[in-house]
Amino acid sequence: MSIPPTRRDARAARTIRDIRRDESAAMVTSDIAQAAIALHGTPVLLLDPERVRRQYRRLTAALPFVRFHYAVKALSHDAVISALADEGCGFDVATGEELALLDGVGRERIIHTHPIKKPSEIAEALAEGVRTFVIDNEVELEKFAGAPGDVRLLVRLAYRSPGAKSDLSSKFGVGPFEAAHLIERAIARGIRVGGFSFHVGSQLDDPARFAAAISETLALMDSLESALDIRFETLDIGGGFPVGYDSAVTSLEELAAVIRPLLEPRARRIQIIAEPGRIMVAEAMTLVTSVVGIAERGDGRWYYIDDGLYGSYSNVLTEDVHPLIFSERELAGRDSDAATHRWATLGGPTCDSTDVIAREALLPDLGVGDLLVSPVMGAYTAVTSTRFNGRSATPIAVVGQGARTGELIAVEPRTPVPLLV
Q1: Which tens digits make up the pLDDT trace of 6-21?
Q2: Beta pairing, strands 342-347 & 300-305
Q3: What separation in angstroms does the CA of 274 have from each of 63, 66, 199, 378?
Q4: Are 293 and 304 in contact (CB under 8 A)?
Q5: Strands 110-112 and 90-93
Q6: Mean per-residue pLDDT over the chain, rounded
Q7: Domain 14-47+282-412 is classified in which CATH homologous superfamily?
Q8: What is the rounded distance in angstroms from the CA atom of residue 372 to the CA atom of residue 396?
Q9: Which of the following is catalytic: 139, 208, 351, 420?
Q10: Domain 50-281 sits in CATH 3.20.20.10
Q11: 351 given a catalytic annotation
């Protein structure tokens, strides 16, 4: 478990903090957000699908020759799927359950990228019309023996990235020699391999590592095409595009400037696809919580709030990210003098003593019932939360257009937890 580090220099993240404060204020002070908070209480997640649309358009502007497939696992809410489907985005699924969420989306727009799948799940996806899958071992390859001729397999390569928040090549992917063996085996079995995929890791703020993975993969493709007299048609560069939570990261445009010269010339002959998840939805959702308890302890003041590591702040635990936390009073301009703020520890609502969201957060004096706001809570939050202590899921209120019209578009209600007897 990774607990946020002790006190940080508040000046170090001033720029990103100011940006996030302004975004949070615009979201939370809107009429629709206030209506959702008043109606449903806290905790509540405020989702703005328009921000998802903007991110998709930003991606396509930065890398116009790339076909983007949104990684549904990041946030599988209907409003996100609907917005991206309208924009023409493709989708990346890892399970049959995620595929079922894409009812009405053309199956040619869907890729299945989990390298390990149940045979029944493959059969279901094939029956649904999905034709692009990822493999990384011979056992998985054999599962596609006898598959329709238009099925396209991508061999996942491993590129270790110690600097990533989550090094996804520690569990999946193969090296170049194993990849060559898989392709030779596929040729012998009459199974079509369309190309390669890789994932440099989650939250990798290192454009050079992206560029190296692309260059090495393209070199491998060239080598194998020559050696085996075949032609590949697809390169999947995965995801991992970083998002700034409490500090600035390389922007999408800066990353694109590094990798575009490598990819664009190849896009004339092969299809280049990507699987963005976090970058698409992280900024689209904001969490509102309230203080439910206060204690003075040996290490200072503690505020206990009604969401935590087992709920929406699961990203602190599973992703090692640290969302900023503002008081609603500060956002409303009623208590913005940082000189009067104090360092406090934020505890979650469960009985587990490790449910600590932040060891030191700079906040004004708060009382029970005061609201706290965390921006950039769209990715790997609601989808990775648990029902520990029998707590219900934090509801998601869809805002966006409603922020202008005053109409509450939709709310995903709290789900009762069934008891096993």
Answers
A1: 344 444 445 898 999 9
A2: parallel
A3: 10, 7, 9, 19
A4: yes
A5: parallel
A6: 89
A7: Lyase, Ornithine Decarboxylase; Chain A, domain 1 (2.40.37.10)
A8: 16
A9: 351
A10: yes
A11: yes
